[in-house]
Amino acid sequence: MFKNISLFIVFILAIACKNTQTVTQNFLDSKPQDISMYPVPKDGFKHVFIHLDQQEDEDNFQIEFYAGKTMKIDCNKHTLMGKFNEQNLSGWGYSYYNFETNGEFRTTLMACPDDEKHQEFVKSTTKIVRYNSKLPIVIYIQDGFEIKYNIWKRQELVLDATESDK
Q1: pTM of the predicted model, to two decimals?
Q2: 76 within 8 A of 107, measured Cβ to Cβ
Q3: Lowest-confidence range among 59-63, 95-99, 108-112, 145-149?
Q4: Are 22 and 52 in the same domain?
Q5: Is residue 1 included in any domain, yes or no?
Q6: Mean pLDDT in residue range 22-48
């Protein structure tokens, strides 16, 4: 009887230790990556980080990010002018991005009949990069602008291109 109780206690302790290990590993996996090796932003700039959750097959995912600002605009289509430049973090082999802009926006020139303005996030052209949960995506941007991003997943349906008749 005592032997059965001892085995039962050992079994319960083993399960408890396994669950504790899983919870601890999940906590460690969810912690943001170390970013101390990246340069300090210049005056008037800030750096932002995108930390990604681990996915089962990360080759099926991509990240699209863009800079922008929420502004009052009219009925025209507005775009923040600027571009993302990829930089190499010397000695580490990691990349980061600088968004360079003079703060100007381009716009279509349609006549707006009601001349009413509304709040909208005016974004730049986008940058698409591969999904990698092991490293943060680091972006330096001027104060007053924001970075937003989308996560894209490859669809299961694969389509064939149409062959030309000629």
Answers
A1: 0.74
A2: yes
A3: 108-112
A4: no
A5: yes
A6: 72
Does residue 69 contact residue 78 with C-beta atoms inside 8 Å? Answer: no
Could you tell me the two tokens for 24? 């601890």
The 3-state secondary structure of 19-56 reads: HHHHHHHHHHHHCCCCCCCCCCCCCCEEEEEECCCCCC
d(CA 92, CA 9): 49
The total number of residues shown for the chain amounts to 166
pLDDT at 15: 53
The residues pairing with 118 across neighbouring beta strands, listed in sequence order, are 73
Identify the pLDDT of residue 130. Answer: 96
If asked whether residues 46 and 91 sit together in one domain, one would say: yes
Q: Report whether 145 contacts 101 (CB < 8 A).
A: yes
Residues 6+ apart with CB under 8 A from 86: 95, 96, 97
How far is the C-alpha of 39 from the C-alpha of 49, rounded, in Å? 13
Residues 131 and 68 in one domain: yes
Kindly state whether residues 5 and 41 are assigned to the same domain: no
Q: Is the pLDDT of residue 25 over 80?
A: no
